[in-house]
């Protein structure tokens, strides 16, 4: 992983890290000085100021991204639901509620992938049947 980083970039990272550490040390010294002045003049300290060291928080984590289903997983769910519906078929709204999939995803699936599925037939507006 580190083999692909040029040495000039590593040197630059080292310099930036040293600068950051120096700035953090200065901030901590300023905090200690503030505590000394506050205590000298009887200014109450905020909760835990004296005991709390200054730390630099890292960037927040990204919200977890919903995992994508394996290829063909949606097709299998749809086929299972249409088999269970029998000859009367099922509407996209019914399938959406039953499968927990947004109806927009199902409309796209039927207009694109569903065209190539054998035995799948449109029997009404947004209603499909598996023969």
Describe the protein in words:
Helix content is 50%, strand content 8%. A three-stranded antiparallel beta sheet has the order 1-3-2. It is elongated, with a radius of gyration of 31 Å. 6% of the residues are buried. The protein folds into two domains: 8-52; 73-130, Orthogonal Bundle (Arc Repressor Mutant, subunit A), CATH 1.10.10.10. The two termini are 54 Å apart. A hairpin with a 2-residue loop joins β2 and β3 (127-130). By secondary structure, it is mainly alpha-helical. The chain has helices at residues 7-40, 73-85, 92-99, 103-112, and strands at residues 90-91, 120-124, 127-130. It contains four helices and three strands.
| Distance linking N and C termini | 54 Å
**SSE string:** HHEHHEE
Low-confidence spans: none
Q: Residue share in helices?
A: 40-55%
What does the largest sheet look like? 3 strands, antiparallel
Give me the CATH architecture of the largest domain, please.
Answer: Orthogonal Bundle
Tell me the layout of helices and strands:
Elements: H1 7-40, H2 73-85, E1 90-91, H3 92-99, H4 103-112, E2 120-124, E3 127-130
Antiparallel strand pairs: 1-3, 2-3
């Amino acid at each position: 992983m580190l083999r692909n980083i040029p040495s000039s970039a590593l040197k630059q990272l080292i310099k930036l890290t040293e600068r950051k550490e120096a700035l953090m040390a200065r901030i901590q010294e300023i905090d200690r000085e503030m505590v000394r002045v506050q205590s000298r003049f009887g200014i109450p300290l905020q909760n835990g100021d004296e005991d709390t060291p200054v730390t630099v928080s890292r960037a927040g984590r990204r919200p977890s991204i919903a995992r994508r289903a394996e290829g063909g997983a949606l097709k299998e769910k749809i086929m299972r639901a249409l088999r269970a519906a029998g000859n009367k078929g099922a509407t996209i709204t019914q399938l959406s509620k039953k499968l927990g999939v947004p109806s927009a995803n199902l409309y796209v699936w039927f207009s694109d992938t569903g065209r190539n599925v054998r035995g799948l037939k449109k029997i009404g507006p947004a209603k499909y049947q598996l023969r």
